[in-house]
Design brief:
Blueprint lengths: L14 H7 L39 H14 L3 E5 L2 H12 L5 E5 L4 H13 L3 E5 L6 H5 L4 E7 L11 H11 L3 E4 L4 H4 L9 E5 L13 E5 L1 H14 L5 H11 L2 H20 L4 E5 L9 H7 L9 E4 L2 H11 L13
Parallel strand pairs: 2-3, 2-4, 4-5, 5-6
Antiparallel strand pairs: 1-7, 6-7, 8-9
This protein binds pyridoxal-5'-phosphate.
The site of pyridoxal-5'-phosphate has 15 residues, from helix 3.
Length: 339
């Protein structure tokens, strides 16, 4: 169930409140209202009993504070901020697998994730079976003795399919293995993966969480033990977040709730408009009745179906290029989720 903003002021804080306040200690007179960027690679101390503070370790004070905020937004025990979304995905996968292990993943995935699973992990002795998550029993049938995790994404990039994480969770629970979900396109405003049986959520914070197209970042949220393990991989493979990026991410999170709700409304309006045009062959937006996962999106994403709209222009690639060239405001660039 998505947490609505604007409810009973005496009830637990909603996402808009958590986006502003979560993770921070209450301020004392003289403290800055905005957290300081702790732009330091290292910290005094580090003798035997001091505990080593070093920004690559993810224990820079602002990294920790924003990690707590992300955990609160996801309803997770813990979270860690990393240097990119792919860093977050890779650190999570590396923390859960070793040579000889096996992964079951939904077939529709962000391109680089697919390349990681299909081409890179096999070089490390880790294999993946890709399944159609809509095929009955697909997750369960693909499980092997050495399967260590199930992985899916929703809504998927770019066809905006919304696979049901509960089906994956049912298969995984029977075997005691975790479900990992990339919820970048959903954000915690639109989808609550941990309430649907997912164990670990990853995001490219480059997108909606940062929200201004000015950072590259990633987050992982889940049980503290899983976050510790992903953090260990982050340390060893060097995927740590820069303090200035973390500060910009914190700033983005303060407006996440309002931004995503506006994205939802704008995207639905654009999708409806395109759906009525004869130049458009097909609109792919889970908020439209014509989308194959419309009913599921309504159930799992009650706040809205997100800010991404995909559509197919009649006339093939040439017509699509002409359409894009004729746009006056919208310009072509990779990435999404920024204002
Ligand atoms: C769904 C999804 N996951 C992960 C990523 C990777 O994120 P990053 O570019 O921050 O590494 C992207 C990037 O487009 C994405 O769309």
């Amino acid at each position: 169930m998505a947490i609505e903003s604007g409810g009973d002021p005496t009830s637990a804080p909603g996402l808009s409140t958590l986006g502003v306040h979560a993770g921070a200690e209450p301020g004392k007179p003289g403290d800055p209202v905005v957290p300081a960027i702790v732009q330091s690679a290292t910290f005094f101390g580090g003798r035997r009993d001091d505990g080593l503070l070093y920004t690559r370790y993810g224990n820079n004070p602002l990294q920790l504070q924003v990690g707590r905020k992300v955990a609160a937004l996801e309803g997770a025990e813990a979270a860690v901020v990393l240097g990119s979304g792919m860093g977050a995905i890779a650190a999570t996968v590396l923390s859960l697998t070793e040579a000889g292990d096996h992964i079951v993943a939904a077939r529709d995935l962000y391109g680089a994730t697919r390349v990681l699973f299909e081409h890179e992990l096999p070089r490390r002795g880790i294999s993946t079976t890709f399944v159609d998550p809509e095929a009955p029993g697909a997750w369960r049938r693909a499980l092997r003795k050495r399967t260590r995790m199930l992985y899916l994404e929703a809504p998927t990039n770019p066809t905006l399919r919304v696979p049901d994480p509960r089906t994956a969770a049912a298969a995984a629970q029977a075997r005691g293995i975790p479900v990992v979900m990339d919820a970048t396109f959903a954000t915690p405003v639109n989808l609550r993966p941990l309430e649907l049986g997912v164990d670990i959520v990853v995001h490219s914070a480059t997108k909606y969480l940062g929200g201004h197209s000015d950072i590259i970042g990633g987050v992982v949220a889940g049980p503290a033990s899983a976050i510790d393990a992903a953090t260990e991989m982050m340390k060893l493979y060097g995927a740590a977040a820069d303090p200035h990026m973390v500060w910009l991410l914190d700033r983005g999170l303060r407006t996440l709730d309002v931004r995503v709700r506006r994205h939802n409304a704008n995207a639905l309006a654009v999708a409806r408009y395109l759906d009525g045009r004869r130049e458009v062959r097909r609109v792919l937006y889970p908020g439209l009745q014509s989308h194959p996962d419309h009913a599921r999106a309504r159930e799992l994403m009650p706040a809205g179906a997100g800010g991404m709209v995909s559509f197919v222009v009649r006339g093939g690639g040439g017509a699509a290029d002409r359409f894009v060239d004729a746009l006056r405001l919208v310009q072509v660039a990779p990435s999404l989720g920024g204002v």
